[in-house]
Amino acid sequence: MRVMDLTERIEKEIPREQALDWDNVGLLVGDKEQEIHKGYVALDLTDAVLEHAIDCGADMILTHHPLIFGGIKRVNADDFIGRRILALAQHGIAYYAMHTNFDVCVMGQIAAEQLGLMDIEALEVTSPEDGRGIGCLGKLTQAVSLYDLAERVRDAFGLSHVKVFGDKDRMVQSIAMCPGSGKSEIGLAIEKGADAYITGDIDHHSGIDAVADGLSIIDAGHYGIEHIYMEYMKNWLAKEAAELEVVTEPFAEPFWIVTR
What we know:
Layout: H1 3-13, E1 26-29, E2 38-42, H2 47-55, E3 60-63, H3 80-90, E4 94-97, H4 100-115, E5 118-121, E6 124-127, E7 132-134, E8 136-145, H5 146-156, E9 163-165, E10 171-177, H6 186-191, E11 196-199, H7 204-212, E12 216-219, H8 222-226, H9 228-240, E13 245-248
Parallel strand pairs: 2-3, 2-13, 3-4, 10-11, 11-12
Antiparallel strand pairs: 1-4, 5-8, 6-7, 8-10, 9-12
């Protein structure tokens, strides 16, 4: 199949037009007419991901986070973005990213389902005609302690740890989620009456201020929830592009922690 055959199938379910204005999605490197046989799915296009894709003979990489965000004035080996673009070109690998359009169309729903939430709706509606948007809001079947919810989040997403702001014994049932970096949605989670908010990249002051406003926070990390993109796309491609062999980057939290 050609690159354009695959991207057209993807964009029927995850249209580029659903991406937020500041984002950069779609075919970022490569020729849409190129024939492809093996895809490599990862959250980020890191040096390790690129090496793995080359080693396994992939001719297309699909990621959630775009390698290229802003304008580029030159492509050379002096910086990591240029080096990766050059390597993609040298090895004949096309590169496609689906970021906030994936968030709007898919991410919140599958994250909520993985946690077992009910009555799911978008946290921030960006597409009023169909109710799609960033994050999700839902309810647990019954109230649980914040500590129990934190354990549930850790286990549901296969994580080594989560960070929690709030009283561990507080009972929570209405849950807001924003996979990735969700500090900017704290006010919306409070406004919509959530008891707890699950997201990533929460700083000290944002966390303690949210608690003062009645919102408990579970910080599962930026990677912690969004890694579900890889499994979803692997399964979607197996169904919708069966002629394409697909390999996914192994799950690995991109950091390590020293404990006492």
